[in-house]
Amino acid sequence: MGMPSAFITINGYGLKTTRLGYRRWRFKREDRAIRPMDRREYVYVTSAAVMRKRLTEAGYNRPALELEYLRTLQKISAEGAESYFRTRCCIGRYTSTQRAEACRRASLNDWLFALKENITNRKARISNPPDRVDDRGRPAEVDVLIDTLAYSESTIYPIKTEHLLNAFPCASLDCMAIAMLEVVPDTAECILDVTDLVNHELVYCFDDLKKVDETTGDDRYDI
Q1: CA torsion 100→73→179→205, rounded to 10°?
Q2: Domain ranges of the chain
Q3: Cys bridge to 196: 4, 65, 141, 164, which one at CB 3.0-4.6 A?
Q4: Cβ contacts of residue 60 below 8 Å, gap of 6+?
Q5: Whole-number Å distance between alpha carbons of 89 and 157
Q6: What pTM was computed for the model?
Q7: Sites in the chain below the pLDDT cut of 70
Q8: Could you give the CA distance from residue 93 to residue 99 in angstroms, rounded to a whole number?
Q9: Closest CA to 118 of 10, 2, 205
Q10: Pairing verdict, β 40-47 and 32-36
Q11: Could you tell me if 57 and 51 are in contact, meaning their C-beta atoms sit under 8 angstroms apart?
Q12: Which of 179, 102, 174 has the alpha carbon at shortest distance from 141?
């Protein structure tokens, strides 16, 4: 059994994991819900549209993502793109040279396209993904980006990130969330799942809801 953890997902795709505790981040107390699944789930849940609005109000939007993307590319360039991928990326279909070249030629939109493919297909390998074009005559090999993102959780890069998608050129949790929210529908669920922490009595933020949930439908508590 693993260490009790909390998980943030957007449209079912992992954004962040924390062990033995959690930070509520952009979720609010009123987002709490107890879901009667096979095992009772304790979650904060809201829609992509609402989460996007909260991030915008906090100063995180597409321009903020673009700025962080450019800053991260500068750091990768300073490290040396091929060295950056060669020393840390040990799995996947492509060589460090191919990954470095794809990174150099790709635009932010190419990375977002690759991210959407990974979210949509849940890391399934795509046999012949289409190429995208950044500038005329410069095809960006998005299939390489898709593969790179698919293995990012099991790869360590020198640029420390606040999220699970280490390979995406963006370090902060807020900007990575903006990137993910760019490629999912407004109705997609954003979830902070603290079920493990509640079950191990490491947090007590759902105690009031648990009491209500346990008494619902019991005639003894009817007024």
Answers
A1: 110
A2: 5-54+187-221, 75-182
A3: 4
A4: 174, 175, 177, 178
A5: 8
A6: 0.85
A7: 1, 87-91, 122-140, 153-156, 212-223
A8: 10
A9: 10
A10: antiparallel
A11: no
A12: 102
The Cα–Cα gap between 105 and 155 comes to: 21
Q: Which two tokens stand for residue 28?
A: 């609010």
Q: In what order do the strands lie in the sheet with 40-47?
A: 13-19, 5-10, 189-193, 40-47, 32-36
And the tokens for 158? 């020198």
Do 170 and 65 meet the contact criterion of CB atoms below 8 Å apart?
yes
Opening angle at CA 169, ends 165 and 172, nearest 5: 70
DSSP state of 40: E
Residue type for position 73: L
Checking DSSP bridges between strand 189-193 and strand 5-10, what pairing results, if any? antiparallel
- Burial class of 190 by CB neighbour count within 10 A (0 to 12, 13 to 18, 19+): buried
* CA atoms in the 13 A half-sphere facing the CB of 116: 13
